[in-house]
Amino acid sequence: MKKKQQPEQFYLYPNKLVEEVFNSTTEGIMITDDQMHISLVNAAFEMVTGYSLDDVRGRNPRILQSGKQGSAFYEKMWKDIHTKGVWRGEIWNKRKNGEVYPELLSIASIVNSDGEVTNYFGIFSDISRKKFIEQELEELTLTDQLTNLANRSTFKESLNELINLSIPNNFIHALLFIDLDRFKHINETVGNEVGDLILTEVANRIKLIVKENDIFARYGGDEFLLTLSYIHHQKEAANHAKEIIKSLNKPFYIDGNEIYITSSIGISIFPQDGIDAEKLIHKADKAMYFAKQNGRNQYAFYFEDLKKDSKRLLLLEAELRKSIQTKEFNINYQPKISIVNREIIGVEALVRWENNKLGNVSPSEFIPFAEDTGLIIPLSEVILEKVCLDIMEWRSKGIQHLSVSVNIASLHFQQDDFIERINAILMQYNCSPSQFELELTERTVMKDAQGIVNKLIKLKNMGFKISIDDFGTGYSSLSYINRFPLNYLKIDSSFVQQITSLKDKQAIVDSIIMMAHRLHLKVVAEGVETKDQVKLLKEMDCDIIQGYYYSRPIPSSELLDFIELWEILKQERNVL
């Protein structure tokens, strides 16, 4: 039989110090007898709950229950208290004024020398502020801060969820890839601040057209994505595209400026053009560039023969050859961050092409075309020259040893003088091979394994670092990769972006990292876009992170600012 403790005993403190601690602590404290009748509370309890001691003396603590937790929650709580003597966790309680709030609560039983429970002791803290901050941070990671729209990662996740629901029901959806025409020129003319105001107004105008179940996001820069959910016919998508184009053709009045813009829209259809977000976005992107090529300020649907358009291909080849001669390309750099010490350990060089006749040509279009036509050889040499020039500029600004990754196509290894030509360019600009990382795809190294191995050994002996890019998308194994003189292995972004949602992708990435480390290779995860992905990759002991979570690809001039800002953030521990 449990001995009932008399409530009056709790008014007697062993000494004045204990009384002062009890009443001055910021955590709320409540003590009950063995029958769960409240005997004593402190000042913090009264402040947080609004109840005084007179209000609650002799009553059961269930008067604080909010109703947000069911009976199973409390059954589990009391089971832990009775078996372990203590329970700790988050709970939602209710103040005297009816306001529901979250608290971190610990409950423990107090026993006498005979092991009998005499009292229960609860101590809690109000975590409303903590929950508010967590919600704010979550919103920051899910939304675009300029327009308050969903960001690219949120959009992809939402679209894939919609697709998973739609596949068994034969629903039809349309994806619109919206790009503002010549927006870079507008930014240069009126300034970035006005440009941001235009982007915000563009988002607001399109919102008026969006239906309740549609998914609308800012993809990046001046690009927007819109999923039209549950349509019955492609004509509906065309009508929406026309409405958006018409809306954006109206003048923008900002800071005394009357500004006119146009837009180009590419449209892909689920399920005929793809059954995952990546494919639908990719095909809508292609259709958007087709709309630009045909005069801008219009929309175009994706169709399978789009890439075979003879007029487009003829123009593409002619302009690509001219641009290689005039070196009409820009290089952007995406930082690579060590997950261990948060240092910027290098950057990847990514080529960008804006042509007078073709506009902004996507690398996914002109790089494969350059490989097919053999133009990849002179194009790569132009890229390497521009990277060397940037390295020289960085040196003059005090950045001495930043490693740069450049992509090498399989066609290079078929050239007898390939290594000599690369070395000649580096010597011309006084650059060291040790500052370069050469990236090859799985498919490249598997085409002529032994011949490529010999060239890679020679390159590595010269000081180049060697990396396998897009690992997991080909057909090679880690045991086979071990034959090559590698330094790094890059996990393809298609795996990385799904590790927090698909257990099989998570298991694959985890296995690749473990096996790569056994082969003494460092692992780079590319396409990282969320904080959860970073945390999970850190738990898997991944070495290096690359992706939009830390930085988009940026011009050389912005890279120096990024490095300076990163050092400040790192010292303030504001980076993960």
UniProtKB/TrEMBL annotation:
User: Domain of life of the organism in this record?
Assistant: Bacteria
Q: Where is the PAC domain?
A: 87-139
Domain PAS, by residue range, is 14-60
Question: Ranges for the EAL domain?
Answer: 313-567
In this protein, which residues make up the domain named GGDEF? 171-304
PROSITE patterns on file: EAL, GGDEF, PAC, PAS
The UniProt entry, under Pfam families, shows: EAL (PF00563), GGDEF (PF00990), PAS_9 (PF13426)
List the SMART domains: EAL, GGDEF, PAC, PAS
Q: Which InterPro entries match?
A: Biofilm_reg_signaling, EAL_dom, EAL_sf, GGDEF_dom, Nucleotide_cyclase, PAC, PAS, PAS-assoc_C
Protein name, per record: EAL domain-containing protein
Q: Which organism is it from?
A: Psychrobacillus mangrovi
Classification of source organism: Bacteria, Bacillati, Bacillota, Bacilli, Bacillales
